[in-house]
Amino acid sequence: MDWYSVRLLIRCNGKGQPKRIPLYEDRIGVVRAKNHDQARIKARRIVNGGEVPYKNPLGNTVRWRVAEVYESAKLFEDETKNGRFKDGAQIYWRYIRSSDPVKRLKREVTMNGLF
Prior knowledge:
Blueprint (H helix, E strand, L loop, with lengths): L1 E13 L9 E10 L2 H15 L3 E2 L5 E14 L5 E2 L2 E2 L15 H7 L8
Antiparallel strand pairs: 1-2, 1-4, 3-4, 5-6
C-alpha cells in the first residue's frame, strides 16, 4: 500500500445556509491505499464518517459533507520512513502556468482566512 494525498471539496449544509453562494471547505487529507481510486473512496468515507452535525450560533443544525473528491497524488516513497512521514514531507503539489503565480494564488484566495 502507498500513501496518497487526496483533495476534497466539502460543502456546508443545513437550515439557514445560503443556497445561492454556499460555503465550501477545500481540504487535503492523507491516506494509505493500493491506487488512486481506492484512495479517493477511502478519503471520502473517512471525511463523511468523521463529520458530526452541530448547532451554529443561530441554533440551526449544520452538516459538512463531501461534495467532490477531485484530486489525488501518490506520495514519493522517500517522504516516509518506516510508515511515518519525515519532517517537512511534501504531501501536495500542483503545477501552475502563469506569468505571475503569486498574484494568481492570491486571486484564488488559497490561504485560510482564520489564520
